[in-house]
Design goal:
heterodimer; A: alpha+beta; Aldehyde Oxidoreductase, domain 3; Aldehyde Oxidoreductase, domain 4; 3 domains; 7-stranded mixed beta sheet; 5-stranded mixed beta sheet; B: alpha+beta; Uridine Diphospho-n-acetylenolpyruvylglucosamine Reductase, domain 2; Uridine Diphospho-n-acetylenolpyruvylglucosamine Reductase, domain 3; Enolase-like, domain 1; 5-stranded antiparallel beta sheet; 4-stranded antiparallel beta sheet; 12 strands; 31% helix; globular
């Protein structure tokens, strides 16, 4: 019987009532008395030197309050970066200044040059058009490999080159890896692109700055996944406002997917301008602005080599990746291709030797940072593609090749610095084969062939590291922040609870699943528990929501705080029943004395805490409120197996997804319905990356996919109903809930399934295609079928190609030719 | 969006007069013009909305058996109104955009705009429809003059479109995955005196007739005849993010063959 309350139940999401009835309160719903509006003038060239800005005509226009340019921010810090990477040679990464408004140069299309604050948004827009800017156009740096050549134009004149860092991991293993590859019986090589994406949350970014002179307080309302982090970064590094004078509020947020983690210039601008003008200042991004100012995702070019011995054991893995940073370092950009990517290269396999090299490169494009999965999709994609390609080259079953190399004993220390606590990769694979009915595939393929279609089945495993993360570990890895989470549990006199959490909810359903945890522990109904989040003024310091960390880290903090509440409540109950608190048991909202029929209700105890007439005041304080900070001692490692079944129309190259199955191990599951929904969303984004989404620039740095006319978003009818299962559970061993996190898995695990399926379909029609770069659009597939794709990798035994065929992942052409 | 004056005439004569003003622009369903204006990529001093003019809406059949559709008729109205009399056109109308677009966008607006990836131009050209304005009747063969260019003169309003109904017809569309406009679409119309084939989405000159296909299909209206054709020259085809010229040329042939198959 499914439970109807507590952990393991699937109550409907309480927040959906307000979202579905139009009663959500988003940042754009906030309008303050006397509010002015800002519109940014943005660069329409990718790279140029600003020779003059004349704002006089704009300043004279009706409704204009003030026009700001870069010089107004001379005394203000740049937008900071939260992670520092050290290169192979021991030098720290090159870290350019990121001014709030362009200072001397523009470095990508969309870079803000000036800002007009006016009484209305339209007046600000009109005035923006009256600003006269002279820009001396410079050659744009778009191609990552060209960008790191000695004679390349520099994105930042004060840096030595466009190379941010050159990272080797684990450097001590490099020689052994090289040797193993040169001595291997077989080496499969693959060169591929992880296509640049734009997150496109439904709600564009919004910021409202406010300032009250009577107490010298600044407030920022913003569309953020982590208001405390914004307060820290903006207050300490940009504007110099101490945290006790700065409040950041992220109310209802309409999706983030990573791109709302980061601190953006527009937030700093609105806070700064509100103080300068002593008026609230509001910015609402247009969708066009979102395309050219929200941090983009992915954008890696990788060469991966997998060495196998004669028995098909993986003996070594070597990768070389160029990772696009864009024009500036976004908040967590340096960590994505390194610690969130290199540490995952073992995947589900016991490959003993691994070496990962990542070159992070500045280009004249929008900054690139974390997007759902962040580094782990890039790792999974290359690994699961190269394993599939190896199986094809060796003529062995791709599932059996994986099983042969699966890690089966836990805990398992990988050669890339992490230790998997639990997992059962065979169990999820077994479940997957059942869900997708692999045995019935030949008959389904024959049926497709009878209709002139090519049918393919793609299968892969995945593992990810989330529940980010042990602070001591990430500190060693270059993080400039801790990654704990916090909770304050406040019990009211009449027994209801308010849980103030540092985890922000922007679609994940925290307001439903967090109460399930607390209700389960105390044994009271979930409607007695209210979740408060998103406001630095009334929640404890939290690091926010990303990296599938909310339940694993934030939920654990809530668990710890609730444990403290229960311990204290037991002492009160013991006093009321004249027993020892060691003998008190709490079940179904009642305290009992073990071995007796004595009991008091939860509400009797909470009332006593606040009306302490009969109370052990000499031993404990009145009141019932506890705070806990939880810092995990390891990442969590969700894993699973995914399968995609496709049909390819050989005449047009069009791919149709007929079935998709996901068998995930998320450890314990608090709300199965929410977990299923998270996987559905992740799959939509992962399959969207594989088939549809592509952020493309031309050689001059113009963004070609700058609207929904050219950036293809997946829609519900592009997909079949997904088959999702999370019944294989190996609970996490190091957090109190045994949970692992589920928010990113769908986006991490699904792209290789789709590509593996298409390659399989084409092979069945006699088209031996090594690889096709994502997105697998109809023209790309069609050209690949007709020999038009050079990017098939060099797959000779023990071969090593010095040249890669791809220069960059931001390609204007529709095909790989 | 820049400021503009909105005029809402209730009859054709008022609309014609309102359009005499400098920088006046007719507004049909607004499915292209309004987003363009919102992005500040277009501006007009005066918009003359045609949506309140009853006399340019509706569908009837004339004495020659032609389906006559008022220029202000929405795609949704064509979808339902032509379902029995001209199913190929109803099907085309029913696959434009989404329900919101189909209930605002009009046939006259689509033909006046002549987007190189629009659906209606393919039907009008394949049927050699007559485009009627307040001043004259223009055969489709003389109407489409290239991307976003037509024979319409300043102030001319598409009041009606007259389609000779083919013996068989089909519109085969392959969509561009982002915009869901045609990447390539082909309208095949078979008449007693021959077959006409019009292609949209493919050419940088906008909608065009594919002469080789028309000749082959007029001689032998079969899928084999269509499949035996050589794809048109890729040279003049649109090459962009969503498909190069060679791919579009290939699709022209595939869509044509599929349209013929659907006609049989």
């Amino acid at each position: 019987m499914p439970k109807d309350t507590g952990i393991g139940a699937s109550p409907k999401r309480r927040e959906d009532v307000r979202f579905l009835t139009g009663k959500g309160r988003y940042t754009d719903d906030i309008n303050l008395m006397g509010q002015a509006h800002v519109v940014f003038l943005r660069s329409d060239v990718a790279h140029g030197r600003i020779t003059s800005i004349d704002t006089s005509a704009a300043e004279a226009m009706e409704g204009v309050i003030r026009v700001f340019t870069g010089k107004d921010f001379a005394e203000v810090g740049g937008i900071p970066c939260g992670w520092q990477i050290t290169s192979i040679d021991g030098s720290v990464m090159q870290e350019p200044k990121h001014p709030v408004l362009a200072d001397g140069k523009v470095r990508h299309v969309g870079d803000p040059i000036a800002a007009v604050v006016a009484e209305t948004r339209d007046q600000a827009k009109d005035a923006c058009e009256a600003i006269e800017v002279d820009i001396e156009s410079l050659p744009a740096v778009i191609d990552m490999k060209a960008a790191v050549k000695p004679d390349a134009p520099k994105v930042h004149d004060d840096l030595t080159s466009n190379l941010c860092y050159d990272w080797g991991f684990v450097q001590e293993n490099k020689d052994a890896v090289d040797r193993a590859i040169s001595e291997a019986a077989h080496v499969t090589t693959l060169e591929l692109v992880n296509n640049r994406l734009i997150a496109n949350p439904m709600e564009p970014r919004v910021a409202v700055g406010d300032y009250t002179s009577h107490d010298d307080h600044s407030t920022l309302y913003t569309t953020s996944q982590n208001p405390h982090v914004i307060r820290l970064l903006m207050g300490a590094f940009v504007l110099g406002i101490p945290e006790h004078k700065l409040r950041v509020v992220a109310p209802d947020v309409g999706g983030g997917f990573g791109t709302k983690i980061f601190h953006y210039a527009e937030e700093a601008f609105c806070t700064f301008a509100a103080k300068a003008l002593e008026r609230p200042v509001k910015w609402t991004s247009s969708r066009s602005e979102a395309f050219m100012s929200d941090a983009h995702g992915r954008d890696h070019v990788t060469k991966i080599e997998l060495a196998l011995d004669a028995e098909h054991n993986f003996t070594a893995l070597r990768t070389e990746t160029y990772a696009n940073m864009g024009a500036y370092l976004s908040t967590f950009a340096p960590s994505v291709p390194t610690w969130l990517h290199g540490t995952l290269m073992a995947g589900n396999y016991k490959t003993p030797l691994i070496y990962v090299n990542v070159k992070a490169v500045f280009t004249n494009t929008v900054p690139v940072d974390a997007y759902r999965g962040a580094g782990r999709p890039e790792a999974t994609f290359q690994l699961e593609r190269v394993v599939d390609k190896a199986a094809r080259e060796l003529g062995v079953d791709p599932v059996e090749l994986r099983r042969k190399n699966f890690i089966t004993e836990f805990p398992y220390a990988t050669p890339v610095a992490v230790e998997y606590d639990t997992g059962d990769y065979n169990a999820t694979m077994d479940k997957l084969l059942e869900l997708i009915d692999r045995d019935g595939f030949p008959a389904r393929r024959a049926e497709s062939e009878a209709r002139g279609k090519l049918r393919g089945l793609g299968i892969n495993s995945y593992i990810e590291a989330c529940g980010i993360a042990p602070s001591h570990l990430v500190g060693q890895l270059g993080a400039r922040a801790g990654l704990y989470e916090s909770a304050t549990v406040r019990v009211n006199a009449t027994g209801g609870l308010v849980v103030m959490t540092g985890s922000h909810s922007h679609g994940q359903g925290h307001e439903t699943s967090f109460p399930q945890v607390v209700a389960d522990m105390i044994g009271i109904p979930e409607d007695q528990i209210e979740i408060v989040h998103g406001d630095t003024a009334n929640t404890p310091m939290g690091m926010g929501t990303y990296g599938s960390r909310s339940l694993a880290v934030g939920g654990s903090a809530i668990y710890r705080a609730t444990e403290k509440i229960i311990a204290k409540a037991k002492k009160i109950a013991a006093h009321l029943m004249e027993a020892s608190d060691q003998d008190i048991e709490l079940k179904d909202g009642r305290f009992t004395v073990a071995g007796t029929d004595k009991s008091v209700a939860w509400g009797d105890v909470t009332l006593a805490a606040y009306v302490p007439h009969n109370y052990p005041l000499e031993e404990i304080e009145p009141g019932l409120e506890e705070t806990a900070f939880y810092d995990p001692n390891n990442f969590t490692y969700p894993s699973g197996a995914y399968a995609c079944e496709v049909e390819v129309d050989p005449e047009t190259g069009k791919v149709e997804v007929l079935a998709f199955a996901a068998a995930d191990d998320f450890g314990n599951v608090v709300n199965p319905m929410i977990v299923e929904g998270q996987v559905h969303g992740g799959l939509a984004q992962g399959i969207g990356q594989a088939l549809l989404e592509n952020c493309a620039y031309d050689a001059d740095g113009q963004l070609l996919s700058a609207s929904y006319m050219d950036y293809a978003m997946p829609r519900a009818h592009d997909f079949p109903m997904f088959t999702v299962d999370s019944s294989c559970q190996t609970p996490c061993t190091h957090n109190p809930l045994g949970v692992k996190g589920c928010g990113e898995a769908g986006a991490i695990g699904s792209p290789p399934s789709v590509v593996n399926a298409v390659i399989d379909a084409l092979a069945s029609g006699g088209h031996e295609v090594g690889h096709i770069d994502m997105p697998l659009t109809p023209p790309r597939v069609w050209h690949a079928m007709h020999g038009g794709t050079p990017n098939q990798g060099a797959a000779q035994p023990a071969a090593h190609s010095e040249e890669t065929t791809h220069d960059r992942s931001v390609a204007g052409a529709a095909t790989n030719v | 969006m820049y400021d503009f004056e909105l005029v809402r005439p209730t009859n054709l004569q008022e609309a014609i007069e309102a359009l005499q003003a400098e920088d006046a622009q007719a507004l049909g369903g607004g499915q292209t013009l309004l987003p363009t204006m919102k992005a500040r990529l277009a501006m007009a001093d005066r918009l003359v909305a045609l949506s309140g003019i009853a006399e340019i809406k509706g569908i009837c059949t004339d004495d020659n058996g032609r389906i006559c559709i008022g220029g202000g008729t929405t795609h949704a109205a064509v979808q339902s109104g032509c379902a029995e009399t001209f199913p190929a056109l109803a099907s085309l109308a029913g696959r434009i955009g989404d329900p919101a677009v189909r209930n605002r966008g009009t046939i006259g607006g689509s033909l006046a705009n002549n987007d190189p990836s629009a659906c209606y131009p393919a039907a009008a050209l394949a049927c050699n429809a007559t485009i009627v304005t307040q001043n004259r009747e223009i055969p489709a063969d003389e109407y489409f003059l290239g991307m976003f260019t037509t024979a319409l003169e300043e102030g001319e309003i598409v009041t009606e479109v007259k389609f000779p109904v083919p013996q068989a017809a089909h519109y085969e569309k392959f969509i561009q995955p982002a915009s869901r406009f045609p990447l390539v679409a082909v309208f095949v119309a078979r008449y007693a005196d021959g077959v006409r084939v019009a292609v949209t989405g493919a050419s940088s000159d906008g909608v065009f007739r594919w002469g080789e296909a028309e000749a082959a299909l007029s001689a032998d209206f079969s899928e084999d005849a269509a499949r035996g054709l050589t794809a048109p020259d890729a040279g003049g085809m649109i090459s962009d993010l969503h498909g190069d010229g060679a791919y579009r040329a290939h699709l022209v042939k595939v869509m044509c063959a599929r349209a013929v198959k659907a006609c049989l």
